[in-house]
Design a protein that fits this description.
The protein is an alpha/beta fold. It has one domain: 3-Layer(aba) Sandwich (Rossmann fold). Helices cover 55% and strands 13% of the residues. It contains 5 helices and 4 strands. The chain has a 4-stranded parallel β-sheet, with helices on one face. Helix 2 runs antiparallel to helix 3 and helix 3 packs parallel to helix 4. The longest helix has 27 residues. The chain is globular and about 45 Å long. InterPro entries: P-loop_NTPase. It holds the Pfam family AAA_18.
Length: 139
């Protein structure tokens, strides 16, 4: 597993797209797939928003365990690239532990990459993103 972690607007999805095209057997899973599903039903203030995101993430990990186990046994080396925006808060640490447990369950490495950019560049990107509101991370 590769996790690209950063603040919103830093470029996780763009870097993930490049990596998924460059690395053999790589697939990109964007964190907005979980966020958008939960946001369709709940606001971020609703506890159910985070409960649903965790349940969806668990389902993704269970599915990957089922599909990747056979591939790994056959000598294939699939790479799953995840994007995340987790901090060192207790909730962020808990989410990152879920990734670590999923990787350990498959007996594969977990590579965590923290992306950064200058505050000025991040502000420029976020303002540009809000001006182009239908540019979602899932496109």
């Amino acid at each position: 597993f590769v996790i690209l972690n950063s603040y919103p607007g830093v470029g996780k999805f763009t870097v993930g797209q490049i990596l998924s095209r460059t690395l053999p057997n790589a697939k990109l899973f964007n964190n907005h797939l979980l966020i958008d599903a939960a946001a369709a039903l709940y606001t971020r203030e609703d506890p159910e928003f985070y409960t649903l995101r965790k349940a969806l993430r668990t389902t993704v990990f269970d599915s990957l365990h089922s599909s990747m186990s056979a591939k790994l046994d056959a000598g294939e080396q699939p790479i799953i690239i995840f994007t995340e925006a987790q901090s060192t808060s207790p909730k962020g640490s808990e989410v990152m532990q879920e990734y670590l447990q999923a990787a350990r369950r498959l007996n594969i490495p977990l590579i965590s990459i923290i992306l950064t950019c200058s505050s000025e560049e991040n502000e420029r990107r976020l303002v540009g993103r809000s001006n182009n509101s239908n540019k979602t991370s899932t496109k």
